[in-house]
Amino acid sequence: MLKVAEANRVVDLVCREMMAHFKTLFSAMTRDEEAPKTYSHRGAIESRGQVTVLDAVG
């Protein structure tokens, strides 16, 4: 039972890291670089454009 619990803990950690990686990856791949830049309420530069659809087929 302890070995299964340890294996589940490791799988959980790996899955969390992979999900964070994929979130960053897909965010970068669908970003609209031509969107106009504006300032956020904190003063950072942000894009307010639409998210483009990733075309992985063509």
Question: What can you tell me about this protein's structure?
Answer:
- With 58 residues, the protein is mainly alpha-helical.
- The protein is built from 1 helix and 2 strands; from the N terminus they run αββ.
Quick overview of this protein structure:
The chain has 1 helix and 2 strands. With 58 residues, the chain is mostly helical.
Low-confidence stretches: none
From the N-terminal CA to the C-terminal CA, the straight-line distance is 48 Å
CA radius of gyration is 18 Å
Structural class, from helix and strand content? mainly alpha
SS field, number of helical segments:
1
| Biggest sheet descriptor | 2 strands, antiparallel
Task: Report the average pLDDT across residues.
Answer: 81
Helix content: 40-55%
**Order of strands across the widest beta sheet?**
1-2
What portion of the residues fall into strands of 2 or more residues? 5-15%
Q: What brief labels describe this structure?
A:
58 residues; mainly alpha; 2 strands
Summarize the topology.
Layout: H1 2-29, E1 37-39, E2 45-47
Antiparallel strand pairs: 1-2
